[in-house]
Design goal:
Layout lengths: L1 H12 L8 H8 L4 H14 L8 H16 L4 H12 L4 H9 L5 H22 L8 H19 L7 H6 L7 H8 L10 H25 L5 H25 L1
Length: about 250
């Protein structure tokens, strides 16, 4: 069943045409550990673009393209909705309403632009570092996916929907195994273990910040919240890893 869950995770978290049947989805929804496990594969794939010879700026653009070529843009919609909600001058009710609106507002456009710019600049910075820094992509991806799993494990959904499909089948007890499986991602960047660990930690902190905001303003974890947490945590992890590299 774990292999079936991994197929389901690939179908949800990437553009791979697998795991989109009912059995794979059900197995994935019941096993949060599939999030970080798939993160290793996706991180390795997107990290290959960081090894392309060329100017750092060009590599940065290639990296951003590679991320979305592998993972798709479905989760970016969550970033757009979150940005629109943050731009609303109103209470939590107003923020919830704007997230249901299919029209892209200025806040959403700005949020998406910042995330994409964050990927490009992170890729450019990593390209200027020694080759093993490319493994930050793995730590960032695994951290982002572990962050999503954390929201699933400790959060609850305010209504039926994609978020409820995950939160209803998970419990806080799964949180430990999720992060235990994520920790080996730091070893891949040897000897730069500390920067990779900082990247992983940054992803978890960002995910918790998104969870706190979602509880206060949306009443819980929705599909958009999961998507936004993934995208923002990835960017934060990459930049945290680069900053840590320059200091340690």
């Amino acid at each position: 069943m774990v292999l079936t869950a991994l197929r389901g995770a690939l179908g949800f978290l990437s553009r791979f045409p697998v795991g989109r049947d009912g059995d794979a989805w059900a197995a994935f929804a019941e096993r949060p550990i599939a999030f970080p496990l798939v993160g290793y594969l996706l991180g390795a794939l997107v990290g290959l673009s960081l090894l392309i010879p060329g100017p750092p700026a060009t590599v940065g653009i290639a990296f951003a393209v590679g991320v979305y070529a592998v993972t798709g843009i479905n989760h970016v919609d969550g970033v757009a909705d979150l940005g629109d909600a943050l731009a609303v001058h109103g209470d939590a009710t107003a923020q919830r309403e704007v997230m249901k609106d299919t029209t892209l507002g200025v806040g959403g456009a700005l949020a998406v632009a910042l995330v994409v710019a964050g990927l490009v600049t992170a890729g450019s910075a990593i390209a200027a570092l020694p080759a093993q820094a490319a493994f930050f992509a793995v730590a960032a991806e695994v951290g982002a996916k572990a962050g999503m799993a954390s929201l699933v494990c400790v959060g609850s959904s305010p209504h039926d929907g994609l978020g409820a499909g995950f939160t209803a089948n998970a419990s806080p007890r799964a949180l430990g195994p999720v992060w235990l499986l994520a920790l080996p991602a730091t070893l891949l960047a040897w000897p730069a273990i500390v920067p990779a660990a900082v990247a992983l930690l940054a992803a978890g902190v960002v995910a918790l910040a998104v969870l706190r905001w979602a509880r206060s303003n949306l009443g819980g974890v929705t599909g958009d919240v999961l998507g936004a947490a993934n995208e923002i945590a990835r960017v934060a992890a990459l930049h945290a890893g680069v900053i840590a590299w320059t200091h340690w």
